[in-house]
Amino acid sequence: MPDPSSSPAGSSGEAARHHNSPSGAIDPGSLRVADEETDFHRGLGLFDATMVVIGGMIGSGIFLVSAEMSRLIASPGWLLVAWLIAAVLTLAAALSYGELAAMMPRAGGQYVYLREAFSPLFGFLYGWTFLLVIQTGTIAAVAVAFARFSGVIIPWIADDNYLLEPIHITQGYAVSLTTVQLVAVLMIALLTITNCRGLSYGRVVQNLFTVAKVGALLALIVLGLTLGWNGAAVARNFGEFWAVRDPQPVDGLLTAAVPFGLFVALAVSQTGSLFAADSWHCATLVAGEVREPRRNLPRAVAYGAVTVMVLYLLANLAYLVALPLESIASAPDDRVATAMLEQIFPGAGVTVMAVAIMISTFGCNNGMILVGARASYAMARDGLFFPQAGRLNAARVPGWGLVLQGCWAALLVLPRTFRDGKYGNLYGDLLDYVISAALLFYILTILGLFRLRLTRPDALRPYRAVGYPIVPALYVVGATIIVAVLLVYRPQTTLPGVVIVLLGIPMYFVWKNRAGGKRWMAVRDHSDSDVANDRRSV
After folding, report:
1. Phi/psi of residue 456, each to 5°?
2. Three-state SS across 67-126?
3. pLDDT tens digits, 451-508
4. For residue 343, which of 215, 220, 217 has the smallest C-alpha distance?
5. Which residues make beta-bridge pairs with 177?
6. Residues 129-163: pLDDT tens digits?
7. All domains in the chain, ordered by first residue
8. CB atoms < 10 A from the CB of 536, how many?
9. Is 347 exposed, middle or buried (0-12, 13-18, 19+ CB in 10 A)?
10. For 20-48, how does the pLDDT look when each residue is reduced to its tens digit (9 = 90+)?
11. I need a surface site. Which of 44, 55, 94, 383 has the fewest CB within 10 A?
């Protein structure tokens, strides 16, 4: 049977069968049955879905971003406050998304929520940015991080070991192939092939590496809080807990040394903490493969987000008891966790941390690759993407979409930026550009929760957002402030992201017209009258 979550005929047909029954009523149990009707294999239980969330959230960010945050904020106490702000916003968003996930447990997650709350255009703009940069750029970045830390163990893998010397396309851009880039591409290929073989393969890899990375992060925290305890660092950091010491300018002369500068620094620093904690919603993308999705999806998102944010706060506490803030801010290549372990195990800390990050990034990329193609699947089923992306292979996964995602992510590994005589990575710029855009999509999605409460008051909601309307509003206000600050103080990276999103508008109309006048827009589960009748009978 076609997937009712993405097939117009499936969703409207299911509603019609219930509404046209002799009694005109709907059996509550039939709603659950309708959710089970999918071409996907529902092979993910609550534990598996939670591992997808945790695995997607924990990459390499927690081991690195505290350095840049420390340079901007320059205060131990305010550094922890910055992470606490990220934790509060992440949990507020996760609790809010739980209602949407339980209400619409369909493959595609946020794409579906934006489509249903506002219009297919909003859903497409998210899906476009997600496929073009957000997901594929992150996959590329995580793959390169894996390769670079592999180079600690295998010196042949190095950024300056060229298999293909840089070929300049323009003065500021080139294409090259180093051994680091090669390993990154091979990693993406391996995990794409693994996930094309079926959900069971991807699930086993995800669970194994997520458990391993959580264990590694817990070990890092325990070591920092015990063997790494540094009396001088503790006295310095906690004796002057709120003191702001020699902050890096946020913009021009503005620094965290003055109250307004501190406010701006806290907001700008969220580009590190919030996106080290990103992907908390990734389990919603594979809603079509989760058993009892109305029950398990909200729990998985909440459990995963809470677990990771507690670990992140504890990790930063471990950094602060082991290293003076100045050492955190000046950690070589921003590798804060490595600097901490090197103090505990001189000469071995770099290797130990490299292995831990390799485990973390491998598991993170498996989760990103596993869930990513489900958004393009939902778009294709609505006629807004290549039709092949909306088909499942013999293993009942969107194989064509996985291959397309893998190829584009691998291609993003190859282009280089060239500035001040140094080569960088194009995907790094692209990810910087879409940070604010991603936040805007989160804000829009949670505003969609409010809108759906008004437009579909009688829709089935097995789970309702905790603390509604205060908790969702907290996220909207907080994230809006951060976006506004970034627009003012980081326009060079924020505005290009807006341009990338807006480029999706003409593409939307291209795909819409390409559909040839067919009914490309997905039909909602029920008409307003159907939902009202269904809800009364329930």
Report:
1. -135, 65
2. HHHHHHHCCHHHHHHHHHHHHHHHHHHHHHHHHHHHHCCCECCHHHHHHHHCCHHHHHHH
3. 999 999 999 999 999 999 999 999 999 999 999 999 999 888 888 888 999 999 999 9
4. 220
5. 164
6. 999 988 998 999 999 999 999 999 999 999 999 99
7. 8-131+214-385+430-537 (1.20.1740.10)
8. 11
9. exposed
10. 333 333 333 333 444 445 678 888 999 99
11. 383
Using CA atoms, how far apart are residues 266 and 138, in angstroms rounded to an integer?
A: 23
Report the half-sphere exposure of 134 (CA within 13 A, side-chain side): 31
DSSP H helices in 173-245: 179-196, 199-225, 231-239
pTM: 0.86
| Cα gap 367→138, rounded to integer Å | 11
Cis, bond preceding 469 (omega within 30 deg of 0): yes
Token output for 494: 């924020």
Q: Kindly list the distances between the CA atom of residue 134 and the CA atoms of 382, 402, 438, 527, in Å, as whole numbers in the listed order.
A: 21, 15, 8, 33
Beta-carbon count within 10 A of 387 CB: 12
- Strand ranges for 16-70 from DSSP E: none
Tokens 């992440």 locate to 90
